[in-house]
UniProtKB/TrEMBL annotation:
Keywords: Electron transport, Endoplasmic reticulum, Heme, Iron, Membrane, Metal-binding, Microsome, Transmembrane, Transport. It holds the Pfam family Cyt-b5. GO terms for cellular component: endoplasmic reticulum membrane. It is a single-pass membrane protein. InterPro entries: Cyt_B5-like_heme/steroid-bd (IPR001199), Cyt_B5-like_heme/steroid_sf (IPR036400), Cyt_B5_heme-BS (IPR018506), Cytochrome_b5 (IPR050668). Residues 2-78 form the Cytochrome b5 heme-binding domain. It is found in: Endoplasmic reticulum membrane; Microsome membrane. SMART domains: Cyt-b5 (SM01117). One of its GO terms (molecular function) is metal ion binding. This is Cytochrome b5 heme-binding domain-containing protein. The keyword DNA repair does not apply.
């Protein structure tokens, strides 16, 4: 079975001494390759700790470039909410705003039933005297 690489591991290997790159939900150890990369080391380093798929595909890498990947494979990436590997929020700055919105939403989820409970007891209190 293929090794599962967590987001924490991906983040640990995010510098020139040890660099993992996430492409198509698979993680590659490109540490030895970065110095040989025809596109330079900086472009690859810029993709550390995030999903590099879009950047890699935008360049239109050749089949030769893709063939190099199989020797660098570490394992499959363990999907996580911390890093959306697909969808409109992948590697964009808006994910924080989305997370905040979701958090605010869940606060409301607690507040609404509590408010209803409070209203119920208030109603009982006011009506109990008149029976
Ligand atoms: C980690 C996996 C990667 C491998 C194995 C790889 C390999 C290669 C290879 C072999 C080339 C030569 C042209 C070709 O055969 O397509 C190339 C070019 C290039 N790569 Fe990558 N690359 C990787 C990741 C990236 C990433 C993440 C970027 C980010 C943008 C990138 C940007 C470029 C650019 C801009 C060129 C064109 C260089 C030029 O023609 O001047 N590469 N890459």
């Amino acid at each position: 079975m293929a090794k599962l690489v967590t987001y924490a591991e991906l983040k640990e290997h995010s510098n020139k001494n040890s660099l993992y790159i996430l492409l198509h939900e698979k993680v590659y150890d490109v540490t030895k390759f970065i110095d040989e990369h025809p596109g330079g080391d900086e472009v690859i380093l810029a993709e550390a700790s995030r999903d590099a798929t879009e950047a890699f595909e935008d360049v239109g890498h050749s089949d030769e470039a893709r063939a190099l990947l199989k020797d660098m494979l570490v394992g499959d990436f363990e999907k996580t909410d911390e890093l959306k590997t697909k969808g409109p929020y992948s590697s964009s700055g808006s994910s924080h705003a989305v997370n905040t919105a979701v958090q605010q939403g869940s606060n409301a989820m607690y507040f609404v039933p509590l408010a209803m409970l409070g209203a119920y007891f208030a109603w009982r209190y006011y009506t109990s005297g008149s029976i």
